Amino acid sequence: MGMAAETQFHVLAVDDSIIDRKLIERLLKTSSYQVTAVDSVSKALDFLGLNNNEDEHRNSNNPDDDDDEASVSADDDQHHQEVEVHLIITDYCMPGMTGYDLLRKIKESSSFKDIPVVIMSSENIQSRINRCLEDGAEEFFLKPVQLSDVNKLKPHLMKAGRSKEMQANINKRKVMEEIQSPDRTRARYNELEVV
Questions:
Q1: CB 3.0-4.6 Å disulfide test: which of 14, 29, 90, 166 passes with 44?
Q2: Which of 57, 123, 112, 124 has the alpha carbon at shortest distance from 88?
């Protein structure tokens, strides 16, 4: 069972309609995804640790507060590490912030920009669909979402996983190159000569 939990993808589902939220949750769980379902963009941002950052920007008119905002952002980035989200699926039309607003916040975030975002809507408005896809949504599903739609998510999850794995390998290589760098070795020996 431990092995299955490690390979299970975690999806954050956002929809203000309890019926649609339960439907997407059931479809995702049927497809062996771990699901966290929330009923608003605000709760999704809270879950990801991004909501405080938004409030800071809204309430701050003092340019001297920029340093405080940066520290809030850093704390929020650390908060999200507790629960890793592999994909976000969100309704477009919701009270307050829309699914499009969530998409923009995710793509603007340094920590979450690589997470695939899928938008759902019961309205087939081509300009809305195009805008979401142009601004970074991986898919746009028309409601009611079906199992065939959920099956389209796997390639996006795999691509995101490979991207993260490639970045980890690049970071490991940089560390190894830095350790083995002749300049770094010379600097250490130079320090010894000075003493």
A1: 14
A2: 112
